[in-house]
Design a protein that fits this description.
The chain is an alpha+beta fold. Strands 1, 4, 5, 6, 7 and 8 form a 6-stranded mixed β-sheet that branches. It has a 5-stranded antiparallel β-sheet with strand order 9-10-11-12-13. A two-stranded antiparallel sheet has the order 2-3.
Length: 480
């Protein structure tokens, strides 16, 4: 007699996951998508998703190959609850459910959230220190097949607060408030701004004051992907997986997918607030790379009472010339001081949220270090400072402390390690399907199985100890 239970090793990963994760919630979650009194009996949703978990856990990209592996693997059969001689569901069950039953639903997101809640219930999530970053996934699309389209740049969600801060700053300096109404928008300054993008932009309009049109490449194979062209990154059509990891046990607490041409900072604050609302996190610190070091991120984190440890962006400047970091800002006088101890005084605040400082008079003309500071076209040195620059300085000061250094250094052990595991072990380097919702499903379920594995590894030792304890104590109690 052959018993399937005895064929699965006690230390097998699937046995550990089955012991510590309660999957019964899946049937309750999917109940509204099934008919109780119409049609033939369906495959249980729990069985369907257990099969998908096996595929994401072991990096099996093809659903047809997944069924073939389950058919010959005893541990896989045991995990989905099928006996050795029992016929497995057809491969069409998986993709037909995706296309018809769960199409347009948020079932993957709810499954991911429930796994996080189970981790929280087991005390594996602290919710105090969170690390966020994004990684690119190659879209299932040819980078040479595209059409160029004109698209309107989206206005930033913080634009109202920024406009209010701009006018408050102008009034404080005795300037007339600006109008921010449609056709009345006109740039006040057309001078060359070589240091304009020192800190807050990746090209384009750094503060997002006016929504402008731009030309974008749209894939004819997967129109929802985005063409990515970043320094040091491959060019082509990609998606971005924005992920947040908790510091305590590296449990992934949030996953959000965007096209590859989306700036990393755009979804960050909204996803952080979602974690606070959904899971009740009391976030005190966040660890971020230099890509998130922009003024509005630092400002809103400060308003939320969260201290940020993040990398510092050096900014763009002409090679061989003084950068902005060579100049010292004196807040009590609201001036910059150059290396030759000359003042750069306030001139105006533009509608993009930048205060301009210029060296007045003939100070630059008679400067002995003029060649090191000014370009050939410049007559006077000018610098730009964002109206929320002080919040970036607060984050930078904290990052240089001992606690800030420790928090920032753990990025490579948390979120970067999480991305590395998902790509190397779980097949997240490429998109299996096309379309934003389907790629989001892949990312969410991959993160879910990573969390399952982490929960299993953290809790299995305690379960093993209890089993050994009861096995040893039972004979003693019987003798008594």
């Amino acid at each position: 007699m052959v018993i399937l239970e005895e064929l699965v090793p006690q230390e097998h990963l699937l046995r550990k996951i089955d012991a510590v994760i309660d999957f019964s919630f899946i049937n309750k979650l999917c109940k509204p998508y099934y008919s109780e009194n119409n049609g033939r009996p369906a495959i249980e949703p729990e069985v369907l998703f257990r099969m998908l978990f096996i595929g994401y856990l072991y990096g099996i990209r093809s659903e047809r190959r997944l069924l073939q592996e389950i058919e010959v693997n005893n541990a896989y059969r045991w995990f989905i609850g099928y006996d050795l001689t029992e016929k497995l569901p057809d491969v069409s069950v998986i993709w037909q459910n995706r296309l018809r039953r769960y199409n347009g639903s948020d079932i993957p997101q709810q499954i991911f959230d429930e796994i996080v809640r189970q981790a929280i219930a087991k005390g594996l999530v602290g919710g105090k220190i969170l690390y966020s970053d994004s990684t690119h996934l190659k879209a299932n699309a040819n980078k040479n097949k595209f059409v160029e389209k004109r698209a309107k740049a989206e206005s930033k969600d913080y634009i109202d607060d920024l406009n209010r801060a701009i006018n408050e700053d102008r009034v404080a300096h005795g300037k007339k408030p600006l109008k921010f109404n449609g056709d009345e928008l006109k740039d006040e300054q057309e001078e060359e701004k070589e240091n304009y993008f020192d800190d807050d932009s990746q090209g384009g309009n750094p503060a997002g004051g006016n929504a402008k049109e731009k030309t974008v490449k749209e894939s004819t194979t997967d129109p929802e992907s985005g063409f990515m062209h970043r320094d040091g990154k491959p060019q082509g059509f990609f998606y971005l997986d924005h992920r947040t990891v908790d510091s305590k046990n590296n449990i992934i607490t949030d996953v959000f997918v965007t096209p590859g041409n989306t700036n990393d900072v755009r979804p960050y604050l909204g996803r952080l607030r979602r974690q606070v609302d959904v899971f009740g996190f009391m976030v005190r610190y966040v660890g971020l790379d230099a890509g998130y070091n922009v003024s509005h991120i630092c400002k809103y984190l400060n308003d939320m009472g969260i201290q940020a440890a993040m990398g510092k962006r050096r900014g763009c400047h002409q090679k061989g010339k003084f950068s902005k970091h060579k100049f010292t800002y004196l807040p009590e006088w609201d001036v910059y001081i150059c290396p030759e101890h000359k003042y750069l005084e306030y001139v105006t605040t533009n509608r993009d949220g930048y205060k301009e400082y210029k060296c007045k008079g003939d100070r630059c003309a008679n400067c002995p270090r003029r060649e090191e500071c000014l370009s050939a076209k410049q007559q006077r040195k000018s610098l730009f400072r964002h109206v929320w620059e002080e919040f970036k300085e607060i984050a930078h000061t904290f990052t240089k402390t001992e606690k800030g250094k420790k928090i920032y250094q753990r990025r490579k052990e948390t979120v970067e390690r999480s991305f590395a595991d998902s790509k190397e072990l779980h097949g997240l380097r490429y998109c299996r399907m096309r379309g934003l919702s389907k790629v989001a499903e892949q990312c969410l379920l991959t993160a879910a199985v990573q969390n399952m594995k982490k929960i299993a590894m953290c809790c299995w030792g305690g379960i093993t100890f209890l089993r050994l304890f009861f096995i040893k104590i039972k004979p003693i109690s019987e003798t008594r």
